[in-house]
Structures are given as C-alpha cells and as structure tokens.
Specification:
single chain; alpha/beta; 11 helices; about 15% strand
C-alpha cells in the first residue's frame, strides 16, 4: 500500500506542508514497518559507518529488512538501492567516512526531485527511511515526511550545529584531529619564534574552534558568533604576549570568521612577527572515530530502530543532557542553538 499523500498531478508546494506528528496517534492505527532504507547525506563525518552498522544490526535483529542507499539523496532518486546485511557492515565500526558514500543532489532540492525519491522508495517497497547527516540533510528528510514517507534522522556532522541536539556524531573526532595537528604546529612554531594561524571548519558555527582553542592553549580564538576588532583582539594580544617574553603564538580561526591566509598576512604586516597560515580543511572529516563517536552513533542507531518498532515516525534522534532521545522533525528543525556566553567568557580568561 502506498504511503504517499500526493502524486505528480496533485503535488502542492512542499514548503507549505507539515510532516505528520505521531505523538498522539494510536499505534494500532499505523501501518507497521517491515523494510527500511538508510542513507548518509551532506558532508561525511567520522562515525557514520558506526551509524550504518548499528541500524543494520539492530534492524536485522528486530526483524526488519534493511537496504542501503548509495550516494545520499542523489542515489535515492536514481535507485542506487540494495539489501545490506550483517556481513556488509563487518569491520566498519572503526572506519572513518561512510561506505555508503554521500553526494549533493540538485534534483532533490526541487519538489519534483523529492517526489522522484519517494517513488523510488515505493519501487523497492521501503516503508521508512533513516537519514544520517546535518541540517540540510534533515530538510530533505522533512520534505519526504511532508508527503507521507516515515522518516528518522540521525545527526551526523562535525560542526555540532544542529539546534535540537547537544551533540552530533563526528564532532569529537574532528576536534581531536584538529587538536593533534595544532599540537604539532606549536612545536614548529616555538622552534622558529613564529605565529601559526590555523583555520578549522565551522562556516556558521564556532564550536570546533572554541573548544580546540581552549584545549591547545591558543592566544587568539576567532569564531563567527563573536565580532572582533583586529587591532584589539588580535594584534594587541600577540604584542602583549611578545612583550612578556613569549616566543610563539597560536591563532585559531573558524572558517566562517575569516581566512587564515589573510589574517596571517595582516599579523606579520602589523607586528613584524613571522606568521604562517595552515588550513586543516577536510583533514578534520577523516580518521578513525573516537570512542565517543562510535558509542553515540551506535546508541542513536538502536534508538532509531526502536522508534520504527514503536511506530514513532518523523523523528530526529538527539542527545539531551547525556540521554539519547528523540524529537519531532518539524520541532527539531525549528530549534536553534548558539555557544553559551559563559563558554566564550571562559575562553577569554584562559587566553
């Protein structure tokens, strides 16, 4: 039986719709799920393979047939769908990236593309879809939910910028990768009496920069959430350090707060201190996931299967105060968060 609420000849503007909320729906009146799909979308994050493994193992052990969808939403509407079993996810827990791969899809950004994806789910008889990704991926999932496809979202993004959850899979690994690189850069900076300006990921969120800056003892931390004056907050801080006897300096900048290359050039011009930029870039996305990311991904995957078993659809799996739970997808995407002021103040006190 089709779960779709609309067809090609009766498709309203999806942005005007709302996904069905199952909080007050009698489970006995909801069609059960037997066959599920999983895809990873957006930027890859360490721990996505652990998410896939968890969904496959917990889903299979719960009686579901599980299908893997290659290359995210792009692969969905093209029908790149195949059964995935226990053996397929063996030895994936410790691997970075996502073996299902991910891709951008311009087609899926249109209402017609969303309907194509939903139709392909029908072709393969999939009753529900689990999506691991970030905010953009969840908006795609919500579009499917709004036309009748049961959806579960699992947050996987190194930026930790999804408003409804305290933590996103990949964040801890990315920070540890950046910290390790910056520790090595400090060694060479101290050997040459140099200023190292390190650009970390974070186009609109400075979580990585702030925490890595604290962990590495950076003299300056620049994040998009906090406007800064270059002379006061960068040049003066470095000069005060030099005048107190410091021989090397670390400046951490989130990519959304500025360019490491431009900042390093301006520091050298204004202080005479040799300054070198380093852009960590996609290095932060790679590597074996940390214990926290493996554990969080695994437990979120199990919770996603529990939602499907309990006929609780259109949810985002979240971590709140250390507890894995879930929220309605419309509510979740309407939630925003920002770095608490006390964390910013504490970073300043430590610089």
């Amino acid at each position: 039986m089709s779960r779709l609420l609309y067809d090609e000849n009766n498709l309203p503007d999806i942005s005007t719709l709302k996904a069905k909320n199952y909080d007050n729906v009698n489970p006995d009146e909801v069609e059960p799920v037997k066959r599920i799909g999983i895809l990873t979308s957006g930027g890859d994050a360490p721990g996505m393979n652990a998410t896939i493994r968890s969904v496959v193992r917990a889903g299979t052990n719960s009686g579901f047939e599980v299908y893997g969808i290659t290359r995210g939403y792009h692969g969905l509407w093209k029908g790149e769908i195949a059964p995935i079993g226990m053996r397929d996810v063996s030895e994936t827990l410790q691997r970075g990236g996502t073996f299902l791969m991910t891709a951008r899809s311009k087609t899926f950004q249109t209402d017609e593309g969303v309907l194509k994806g939903a139709r392909m789910l029908e072709v393969y008889g999939l009753d529900a879809l689990i999506v691991s990704g970030g905010d953009g991926s969840f908006k795609g999932a919500r579009a499917l939910a709004r036309i009748g496809i049961p959806i579960i979202g699992i947050p996987g993004t190194i930026d930790n910028d999804i408003g409804c959850t305290d933590y996103t899979i990949g964040y801890d690994t990315a920070m540890n990768t950046a910290m390790d690189c910056i520790d090595k850069l400090r060694d060479t900076a101290s050997s040459h009496e140099r200023c190292s300006v390190i650009e970390v990921m974070g186009r609109s969120a400075g979580y990585i920069a702030l925490n890595v800056g604290i962990a590495t003892g950076a003299e300056v931390i620049l994040i998009p959430e906090v406007p800064f004056d270059f002379n006061t907050d960068v040049v003066r801080v470095i000069l005060d350090g030099r005048n107190k006897g410091k021989k090397h300096y670390i400046v951490i900048v989130a990519e959304g707060a500025g360019s490491a290359t431009d900042i390093a050039k301006k520091i050298e011009e204004n202080t005479g201190i040799e300054s070198r930029p380093t852009i960590l870039g996609h290095l932060q996305r790679g590597g074996s996931p940390t214990l926290r990311d493996r554990t969080t991904a695994s437990l979120m995957g199990v919770h996603a299967i529990d939602c499907l078993l309990n006929k609780k659809f259109n949810r985002i799996i979240v971590e709140k105060n250390g507890v894995i739970t879930d929220v309605d997808i419309e509510e979740g995407l309407a939630t925003t968060k920002t770095i608490p002021q006390i964390e910013i103040d504490n970073a300043r006190r430590l610089s």
